[in-house]
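Researcher: Sequence recovery benchmark, item below. Answer with residues only.
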């Protein structure tokens, strides 16, 4: 429960649609999930300013798409991971097409030095996950998406399936194939032990 907002946004019964029109519900939802989403972004981006920007973008996108949330179909965090994946993918496409815009450079001045240090520490802590992501580049998009959500972000197979809007059977098949392919391609120094426990 976020006491300041008086709203519990951590449970699976929280109706995300409320964040669009209810500032207290949005504040509670943001506070409950900002650290998890910032970690998610930091595992995929190595620029602290961009981590801060994309984390904010995820919550803006969540407000814009809150009407698409279907209670009972997906847990709020699984739905939010789906939004975050879309935001990060969109940024990757944008960066492939063009250099950073002047507006983004100007926006970087809003990050305080203490925030920058904290984000750099978080990025450093996620360095091994980024290295693993490079190895995962050989997987298909579908296999990689399930593996990231389960092995890297800690979702259950069921929650990953919800976030990706696929069946649990499809998610399990993709996860199995991804693990088999990584066993073949990863260097011997990389262990898959933690992932075996995440099924």
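Model:
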């Amino acid at each position: 429960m976020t006491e300041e907002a008086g709203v519990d946004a951590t449970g699976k019964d929280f109706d995300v649609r409320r964040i669009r029109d209810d500032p207290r519900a949005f504040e509670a939802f943001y506070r409950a999930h900002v650290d998890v989403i910032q970690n998610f972004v930091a595992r995929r981006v190595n620029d602290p300013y961009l981590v801060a920007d994309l984390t904010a973008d995820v919550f803006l996108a969540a407000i814009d798409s809150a009407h698409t949330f279907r209670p009972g179909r997906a847990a709020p965090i699984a739905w939010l991971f789906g939004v975050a994946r879309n935001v990060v993918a969109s940024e990757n496409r944008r960066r492939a097409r063009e250099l950073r815009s002047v507006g983004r450079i100007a926006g970087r001045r809003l990050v305080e030095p203490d925030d920058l240090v904290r984000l750099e520490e978080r990025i450093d802590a996620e360095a091994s996950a980024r290295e693993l992501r490079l190895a995962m580049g050989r997987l298909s998009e579908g296999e990689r998406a399930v593996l990231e959500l389960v092995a890297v972000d800690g979702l259950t197979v069921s929650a990953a399936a919800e976030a990706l809007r696929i069946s649990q059977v499809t998610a399990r098949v993709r996860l199995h194939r991804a693990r088999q392919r990584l066993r073949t391609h990863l260097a011997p120094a990389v262990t898959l032990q933690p992932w075996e426990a995440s099924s």
